[in-house]
Specification:
Phage_capsid, Phage_capsid-like_C, Phage major capsid protein, HK97 family, 7-stranded mixed beta sheet, 403 residues, single chain, 2 domains, phage-related protein like fold
Length: 403
C-alpha cells in the first residue's frame, strides 16, 4: 500500500483516475479499517479525504466542506448510501474516529457536526458542549446486549419518548360477552394509564489505553458497546429494581405501596418460604395480568428458597429448563433471574407494565488530558433516562421479614 503524507500528495496520485476506480479504492479503505485491527487509520484518513475531493472534482461538484457537505458526496466517498443523522454509516465512522483521535474526512466532519449540533440544542445541552451522540447502530447493539443480560430490563417495556411527556398505556380490558340477536350492546370506555418519565442523568467515566487509536472501528465499537452495557445500562437495570425516584429512576420494590394480603406476602423472619406463600402470591395478582406473568428473583433466592419446595403431592414446584442454565418455571410461570434483587425477595407479575425510557441515547465526551501521565484516554458516558412501574396492580411482592 502506498503511504501518503499529505492530502495533496494523495490527491495528485488519484486525480487522473476514473470515478469507478476511486470509488473501488474508497470501499477497500473502509473495509480494511473495519476489519483489520492493525490498519493504518491515520494514513487511510488522508487518502480517503483526497479520494473524496478527486471524485467531487470529476463529477463537477465542489469538494464537501464541514459547513455543508452534500449527502451524495459524503456517501460517494464511502462508496455507499445509507441512513440519515446518527443512523448513517458516515456518522458512525466519524464518531469512532473522533473518539480515537484520528482525522476525519470532510464529509465525516460535516456529518459529525450536524448530528451533534442538533443534539446539543436539545437534551444534552446542559450536560456538555462537546458530547457526541452515539450512533444508532451502536445504541441498538447496547440495548440488545442489555436485554440479553436478563433481569427485569429484558422483560420490561422500553420507550424512546421525550422526557416529561405523558404517554398513555392500555391496560387489560373486559372480556367480550355473548350477544343476544337484536339486543343493544353497551359501549365500554377504555381508560389508558398515563405514564410520565422524568429526565435523570447517568454518568460513567471509562479510562482506556491510548492504544485504542490503532484498533479497527469494528473492534472499538464492540469493545465500547460491552463497556457501556456493563455500566450505563447496568445502572438503569439496578434502578428498575429499587431506584428511589429521587434523582434517579423509580424501582418496582420502592415505587409501589405494598400491603400484606393485598399485593404482598411476608414470610416470618424465623420461617422459610413455603409452597403456600407462592400460591398466595399467585392468587393475589389482579385479573388480566396472569397470562404474561413471571417470577423475578436473584440466583441465591432461587436455589436457597425456591429450588427445594414441593407441592402437596411432593412434586417440585420449580422445573428447570433442560437447555438454558438458571431458567425454568414455577408452577408454570417463567422465572427470570435479576442479580439486583435482594436475597429472599421475589416479584411476581406482568412486567410489560414496568417501563424504562432513554429518549436521547448515550453521548460520549473524550479527554486526553486528565490521564496524560498514564497514557490513558478518558471517555465520559452521559445518558438521560428514567424508569418506573406503570400499573401497580400488575405486581405482587414476596419478601421475608427482618425481625
Amino acid at each position: 500500500m502506498t503511504k501518503y503524507n499529505t492530502v495533496a500528495e494523495a490527491y495528485g496520485f488519484w486525480k487522473n483516475s476514473s470515478v469507478a476506480v476511486m470509488e473501488a479504492r474508497a470501499k477497500a479503505i473502509e473495509k480494511d479499517i473495519a476489519e483489520d485491527p492493525n490498519a493504518d487509520v491515520a494514513g487511510y484518513a488522508i487518502e480517503a479525504e483526497a479520494l473524496e475531493q478527486a471524485i467531487a472534482e470529476k463529477r463537477g461538484a465542489q469538494p464537501a466542506t464541514s459547513a455543508n457537505a452534500p449527502a451524495e458526496v459524503a456517501n460517494t466517498a464511502k462508496g455507499e448510501k445509507d441512513g440519515e443523522g446518527a443512523a448513517s454509516k458516515v456518522y458512525r465512522s466519524a464518531f469512532f474516529k473522533h473518539l480515537q483521535g484520528n482525522k476525519l474526512t470532510q464529509a465525516e466532519q460535516a456529518a459529525f457536526d450536524n448530528v451533534n449540533a442538533e443534539a446539543r440544542a436539545n437534551a444534552f445541552n446542559k450536560l456538555s458542549d462537546t458530547a457526541a451522540v452515539i450512533p444508532t447502530h451502536t445504541l441498538n447493539e447496547i440495548i440488545v446486549k442489555a436485554r440479553d443480560m436478563g433481569g427485569i430490563m429484558s422483560i420490561s417495556r422500553g420507550f424512546h419518548m421525550p422526557a416529561n411527556i405523558s404517554i398513555p398505556v392500555a391496560t387489560p380490558g373486559a372480556a367480550a360477552s355473548w350477544h343476544v340477536e337484536g339486543a343493544a350492546v353497551e359501549t365500554e370506555k377504555v381508560s389508558p394509564v398515563p405514564v410520565t418519565f422524568g429526565a435523570y442523568e447517568i454518568m460513567r467515566i471509562l479510562s482506556i489505553s491510548a492504544a485504542v487509536r490503532t484498533m479497527s472501528i469494528g473492534a472499538f465499537e464492540s469493545y465500547l458497546a460491552d463497556e457501556l452495557t456493563a455500566s450505563v445500562m447496568a445502572c438503569l437495570g439496578n434502578a428498575m429494581v429499587d431506584g428511589t425516584g429521587s434523582g434517579q429512576g423509580t424501582g418496582i420494590v420502592s415505587g409501589i405501596t405494598w400491603t400484606d394480603g393485598t399485593n404482598k406476602v411476608t414470610v416470618a423472619a424465623n420461617k422459610s418460604l413455603a409452597y403456600a406463600d407462592i400460591v398466595n402470591a399467585i392468587a393475589l395478582l389482579h385479573r388480566g395480568y396472569s397470562q404474561n406473568a413471571r417470577f423475578v428473583m436473584n440466583n441465591t433466592t432461587l436455589y436457597t428458597d425456591v429450588y427445594g419446595l414441593v407441592d402437596e403431592n411432593k412434586r417440585p414446584i420449580f422445573v428447570a429448563d433442560p437447555v438454558e442454565k438458571g431458567k425454568g418455571r414455577i408452577l408454570g410461570f417463567p422465572v427470570v433471574i435479576d442479580d439486583y434483587m435482594e436475597d429472599h425477595d421475589i416479584l411476581f407479575g406482568d412486567f410489560r407494565y414496568n417501563g424504562w425510557n432513554m429518549p436521547e441515547g448515550i453521548a460520549l465526551d473524550v479527554s486526553r488530558d486528565s490521564s496524560f501521565t498514564k497514557g490513558l484516554i478518558d471517555y465520559r458516558a452521559l445518558a438521560i433516562a428514567d424508569c418506573k412501574p406503570i400499573v401497580a396492580d400488575a405486581f405482587v411482592y414476596v419478601t421475608k421479614a427482618t425481625a
